[in-house]
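REQUEST FORM: STRUCTURE PREDICTION
Request ID: SP-0412
Submitted by: Lab K.M.
Chain count: 1
Length (residues): 70
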Amino acid sequence: VFLSVFYNISYWKMGQDRELRRRDRTSQNRMVLDNLDPWTEYCVQVFITTGRTPHPSEPSREVCEKTGSE
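STATUS: Completed
RESULT:
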């Protein structure tokens, strides 16, 4: 069991550089991505780090979804 788990979340517009936007080290297991463009496809990838090791996990598979009108 890990006492501290941090989620490292990267997201970017489909077809653009993955480093377009990045949010690092949140302890929350849910996050709302705000200020996204409407009708735009974004991709998200997550990996975790723990207090026991400085090395991150393998990244999750990329998940891509399209935003709605607002």
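NOTES: The chain has one domain: 5-66.
Reviewed by: T.R.
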